[in-house]
Amino acid sequence: MMNTEVEPREEAARSDKVSPADRLVSNLEGTYYKLTEAAKIVGVSPTTLRRLMKRPNTGVKAPSFQIVQGEMLVYLFTEDDIAELKRHFGLQQPQKRLA
Q1: How many domains does one find in the chain?
Q2: Which of 2, 29, 80, 82 has a CA between 20 and 30 Å from the CA of residue 59?
Q3: Is the pTM here over 0.85, yes or no?
Q4: What is the CATH number of the domain that holds 57?
Q5: Own/partner long-range contacts of 28-32 (Cβ < 8 Å, ≥24 apart)
Q6: Within 1-99, where are the H helices?
Q7: C-alpha angle 55/87/97, rounded to 5°?
């Protein structure tokens, strides 16, 4: 049964809440960025990234990974995904191939 004790707000214990998605990603090996983090790094809105992901034939493969936990879907972007997005949005020049 849940604790439903009523207490004065000033006395209530405060804790830093961590979202379930943050908990999942923090337990992974490697460096991954959630959609909102990737959007911030690239300098676009999360909605722009979602639209890009749904649009066919853009040539953008990002994100490389996702986690499905029940009803929750967490997109995971790698450093390579971030570079790909920056190139797509014209924020980074494509790397030249060495002959």
Answers
A1: 1
A2: 29
A3: no
A4: 1.10.1660
A5: 28/76, 30/78, 31/78, 31/79, 32/65, 32/76, 32/77, 32/78
A6: 20-26, 35-42, 46-54, 79-88
A7: 125
